[in-house]
Prior knowledge:
36% of the residues lie in helices and 12% in strands. By secondary structure, it is of the alpha/beta class. It folds into two domains: 1-87 and 208-244 and 281-354, Vaccinia Virus protein VP39 (Rossmann fold, 3-Layer(aba) Sandwich), CATH 3.40.50.150; 92-204 and 247-278, no CATH class. α3 (73-84) packs across α7. The longest helix has 17 residues, at 141-157. The structure holds S-adenosylmethionine (SAM). S-adenosylmethionine binds next to α2.
Amino acid sequence: MIAPSQTDLFGNPVCEFPSTRYQGSKQKFINWIWSCLSGLEFETVLDAFGGTGCFSYTAKKHWKSVQYNDILGFNAVIGKALIENQGETLNESDIAYVLDFSHHENIPTFISDTFHDIYYTDDENRWLDDILYNIRSMEDEYKRSLAYFAVFQACIAKRPYNLFHRKNLYVRMQDVKRSFGNKKTWDTPFETHFRKFVAEANRSAFDNNKLCQASCADAMSLPSSYDLVYIDTPYVSGDGKGTDYAGFYHFLNGMIDYDQWKNNIDYSTPHRKLQTSPSPWTSPSTITIAFSSLLEHFRDSILAISYRNDGIPSIDWIASALESYGKDVTIFESDSMKYVLSNKTTKEMLLVAR
Ligand SMILES: C[S@@+](CC[C@H](N)C(=O)[O-])C[C@H]1O[C@@H](n2cnc3c(N)ncnc32)[C@H](O)[C@@H]1O
């Protein structure tokens, strides 16, 4: 059972989801999303497009049996660290172990050799080669995942736009007057970021005494036997712009397959992106068919679908498709607005289909 010290007076787990910076994260809407599900009866939950894992984590805190899933391998490692992990943490000696580079004379230097002048400085690239070498040698899967989690978040924090979509180290290095305060975060040493994210990940670890697991698969290939499926697909905006997650975060995916990384890079790209196959979720011409197949596949579960009022396909299209499977659909609209680059506001929506 969960230890008394891990719960508050009301028996709720005392733990906290770490801070993350991820395209399309629903962290700031998560309490609202969960409140829309009140009154529904379910025990097993699939978070099919898991991303940061904030939905899975909330479900885990509410004593559900949770399957976290994401098609990107680095996200599945995050799922291991935050969802599947039953309370393992990194102690001082684990941290000292991963930060001890004193015997690193002949270790692989793939990042230094391949990504010079692309995302990080030479010293920072070398730090990444060093720490990844140590992390790969950690025996415990959950400690390893926690360490990867902290490196991923440190890498994201130090990137302009928090992405790896361009060769733009120069944005960080330019000696110009800036109207925004990111430069300090970019120039904070990797080790400082790493230690902060380890502390946050440690605070998130707990066991809810239910089966919680993380997987890395195409959502369509997962079993359709869950009581509730939360769906938060990549979003295609009304003007047809998709979100290419594999392209945005390829550098983190490369890290978890360090020894094979060199074989998987598309060397024709200036930013040394990983080779990827096209995804039906990134284009306005294919996303509607993908949605159709997905809704049919999970038609027997309660479906909770995060969406925005201006997405492709439209909310009305999704609601009609759900109704055609005999579902009773409720559409919730959040009070918070989000400004996108075009200066238009979009509203966060949730469709719940029973
Ligand atoms: C909008 S994000 C999810 C955000 C997440 N709900 C959160 O709050 O952090 C969409 C996620 O879907 C993942 N993804 C894209 N195609 C997928 C597929 N076919 N199967 C599973 N996951 C996929 C992406 O890697 C991305 O992390």
